[in-house]
Amino acid sequence: MQENENVQEQELDMNQLMKVRKEKLDKLKQEGKNPFEITKFNRTHTSKQIVENYDELEGKDVTVAGRIMAKRIMGKASFVHIQDSEGKIQSYVSINDLGEESYKQFKEDDIGDIIGITGFVFKTRTGEISIHAKELTLLSKSLRPLPEKFHGLKDTDLRYRQRYVDLIVNPEVKDTFLTRIKILKEIKNILDEKGYLEVETPILNTIVGGASARPFITHHNTLDIDMYLRIANELYLKRLIVGGFDKVYEMGRMFRNEGMDLKHNPEFTNVELYAAYEDYHDMMDITEEIISKTAQRVLGTMQINYQGQEIDLTPSWKRITMIDAIKEETGIDFNTINTDEEAMEVAKKLEVEIDPIKTTRGDIINQVFEAKVEETLIQPTFICDYPVEVSPLTKRKATDPRLTERFELFIGGREYANAYSELNDPIDQYERFLAQVKQREAGDAEANMMDEDFINALEIGMPPTGGLGIGIDRLIMLLTNEASIRDVLLFPTMKPLSDH
Hints:
The chain folds into 2 domains: 2-140, CATH 2.40.50.140; 169-317 and 379-488, 2-Layer Sandwich (BirA Bifunctional Protein, domain 2). It is 36% helix and 26% strand. A hairpin with a 2-residue loop joins strand 16 and strand 17. It is elongated, with a radius of gyration of 29 Å. It contains 16 helices and 20 strands. With 500 residues, it is an alpha+beta fold. The strands form 5 sheets. It has an 8-stranded mixed β-sheet, with helices on both faces.
């Protein structure tokens, strides 16, 4: 009861504060000074440019603009700190320079208001680079006060919902997203340097394919058909390889109707790339190059700390088969286990719970790996040669057709990349699609659908091809030392707040 009263009291305080600010705005409008009527303001410098070029700018006039973050009123003179996109800067404001009317207006300005300042650059007695204001302009009135204790909130839900406030009051959050932008650019730069062409493929699909995931379903009214937000762009990119492009990539949003946790958001960024006449060994090489070079170019090092774990991204990384990795961790060698029944007995012995609709030897090998090995892979490790049952788009190994030429990259016990020697046999691909369809009919909502047009493309002929997908958000988490995917997404998916 007491807690509810406190909430109501806080809401009343906020309503009262907003009422006062609205009254200030109404007064400005009555005086013909509506800040929202200003359409343009010419700035000459940012806060960072003034600080970095102080020797050149000292004594010269500059014009800046930003949000008021602090004010110190001292009678006829005051100090104000404004924040722009590159940092904060202080301004000295006095009645002698502004005049009585303008200074009175400045004293009425609130924390959060956006103002423009023109004045000359100087240093205060304490050595702080500042602007001696000659003119102030109110550019936007903040009608809702910034929260006083937004920084360090344990209730991160509010920070995610109001990212705009988070970016204003927590500078380190903006740093994370600036780093994200740099990472995205460097990945594209590396692929461009290696001759890959950036392309665009459909986001709305008529068939679910390219990965194992539950899709989002929508409806196209004109065509009167259900459509799916893409879970992957793989099948379209491989069509381009068929069409004669040797190297292609696409970075963009994917959508999967799955659970949400520290590693998963329903929409996420992925990069997929395909190269004709290459295989999964080549994809391991380029994965190493993309991640290690990006770390070096953006962070200046390949030695990182992720959530207390020291990780070395310097190539070359460990490469081991899934079966050998299981053997290293559990002592069980699945090379000596040939039937589904034997595999199930091993799973029971290892106390691994098996999905009742995924009970083949290959499915069980994959589930044992996920349960017993995955979280132990701290340093960058390529896990290779996945069972064919969990790799419906991958070329089989010539030495053991029960396995495929596929790898996944693990760092810090988490998967970051998935790659294949792509299946280009249309007959084999058709049979595997059929197996996926049966699995879907048995209740597996993540299984692939039959894609007749993709089979048609393979029948035209696709060269031997290597393909790779990298989870960009997880990679950014790794390189920025963020524990949750929501901390590297500007606007993560959130359940709407109930109306009160």
